Amino acid sequence: MNQLMKKIEEAVKREGIDLIGFAPKSRFECLEARVNPFSIFPEGKTVIMLGKRVCRGSLRGVEEGTNFGDYSKFGRGWLEDEFLALACYGLVNALEDEGWEAVPIFPNPSEMAPTGVPVVPGRPAPNVFPDFTYAAVACGLCEIGYSGIPLSEKFGSRQRFHMIITDAELEPTPILERSLCDACGRCAKACPLGAISETETEEIEICGKKMTVAKIDYSKCKSCKNGALPNRLSASAKPDRIAALCNRSCMCHLEEKEVIENKFENAFRKRDAWALDTYGNYVKPEASQTKPDSVQSGK
C-alpha cells in the first residue's frame, strides 16, 4: 500500500485538495442502509473524504451586504460542481490506475427521499445519498459545531466535500480528538430569527466522539435573509448556512480564538454586522460587534 499512498499523495498535491481523510467500513456499521456509503459499494473497504476550502474572500460581499452572487458561485456552485468534482475525478483516476475500484460520490443531501423502488428485496431504494456530515467526522476531518455545521482544524466551517468509496484498504485517519467549538452561543445570539436555540441541545456521537449541537428550527433558516441560501439540490433539505450571519459570527469567533490553521493578517469583521428579520426589516443582532471576545482571545 505504500506505492498506492504515494500515488494518492501525488494526486492530492496535483489536484489542489486541501483536506483528505480515510475511514474503514467498520466506522459506518451503525448507519442505516439509505445513508450508508457501503450500500452503494458493498465490497468497498474505505471511505475517502476530500475537501476544498470555501475561500474567505467569497464571503466578503455577504458580510458587507453588497454582493451575494459570487459566494453562490465560488463558495458552493462552481466549488462543488467544477473545482471539487474535477479534483475528485482526478483522485478516482489515480486509484483506478493502480487497479483499485473507486466510486465518486457527489454531496446530495442525505435528507432527500428515495426516487425509486428497490431493485430486489433487501436492498435500499435508489437513490442512496450518504450522510456527508457523519462521514466528515468518521474520516477524522471535522467535528459538528453547536450550530450543526461541520468544523475542521484547518478552515473551521469553510470547506465542502466529495466522497470516494474504494476497495483499497487504507490506513484510517484518527478521529479528531480536540474540540474547536466551545459552545459560546454566538451563532445563536447572532441569528435574528431565533432559529438556533440557546438552551435546547442534543448530544451527537459519531465513532466515539461526542458533540453538543443546538436544536435548530430549519423552517426559520429557510426564510433567512442574512446570507442563508436554499439547498440548491432539494427544496426539502437543510439550507446552506455557510454564508449566513450565524456561521459568519462563528467564523469570527474561531479566528479570534486562533484555533484554526488558516490564519489571516486582518480580522474578517471590520464593522457591526447587518441583520434582517423575516420581513426584511433591519434589526441589530446581539453577537455582531467587531470587538474581539477578550476572554477567549486573550487580547
Structure report:
The chain has 299 residues and is α+β, with helices and mostly antiparallel strands. The protein is built from eight helices and eight strands; from the N terminus they run αββααβαβββαββααα. A four-stranded antiparallel β-sheet has the order 1-2-6-3, with helices on both faces. A two-stranded antiparallel ribbon has the order 4-5. The protein starts with a helix and ends with a helix.
Q: Mind sketching the topology for me?
A:
Elements: H1 2-15, E1 19-24, E2 46-53, H2 60-64, H3 69-97, E3 102-105, H4 132-138, E4 142-144, E5 150-152, E6 159-166, H5 186-190, E7 196-206, E8 209-216, H6 218-221, H7 245-257, H8 294-297
Antiparallel strand pairs: 1-2, 2-6, 3-6, 4-5, 7-8
Q: Using the CA coordinates, give the radius of gyration.
A: 19 Å
Major beta sheet summary: 4 strands, antiparallel
Average pLDDT metric: 94
**Which segments are poorly predicted (pLDDT under 50) over 5 or more consecutive residues?**
289-299
Structural class: alpha+beta
Helix content: 25-40%
The rough form would be described as: globular
**Using DSSP, what is the number of strands?**
8
- Please report which band the strand proportion falls in: under 5%, 5-15%, 15-25%, 25-35%, 35-45% or over 45%: 15-25%
- Total helical segments: 8
End-to-end separation:
47 Å
Strand order of the largest sheet: 1-2-6-3
The succession of helices and strands, N to C, reads HEEHHEHEEEHEEHHH
